[in-house]
Structure formats: C-alpha cells, structure tokens
Design goal:
By secondary structure, this protein is mostly helical. The longest helix is centred in the middle third of the chain and has 26 residues, at 11-36. It has helices at residues 11-36, 42-49, 53-59, 63-69.
C-alpha cells in the first residue's frame, strides 16, 4: 500500500522510508553484485530490493555510485 504525502504527514515518515529504501537498495546491490558481478544493473537492484526504479535512480545516479556506497 502506497501513501501519498500530505500536509498532515509528518516529515519523519518520509525520512524513515527513504532510509529504509536506501538500506534495501544497498542490501540488494550487495547480493546481486556478489552473484552476477558487474552485469547487474541498477534497475535489477531496484527490482530485487522491492523498490521502484525511480527510487533507485534518485538515491544513486548510476551503478558505480551504488558500488561506492556498498
């Protein structure tokens, strides 16, 4: 279930979700890159993490940036 932020939504909710999504991307990136090597794409990582491709590209400009974060 996806929630659209509103004026009454506390900002902390978004930061928590953003932090969780980042952790999910890092974990999925570690897993996929360990199994597939550099052939794994940022889109593959997003799908494996269960987040949208846009979320992955918002957090990490490219795969190299994800690798640096890992």
């Amino acid at each position: 279930m996806s929630r659209t932020p509103t004026a009454s939504t506390p900002p902390r909710t978004l930061r928590k979700r953003a932090a969780l999504n980042r952790e999910r991307l890092l974990t999925a990136g570690w897993d996929l890159l360990a199994r597939r090597g550099r052939n794994a794409t940022l889109n593959d990582v997003a799908h494996h993490a269960g987040v949208g491709v846009g979320t992955a590209h918002w957090r990490f400009v490219n795969k190299e940036e994800l690798l640096e974060a890992i």
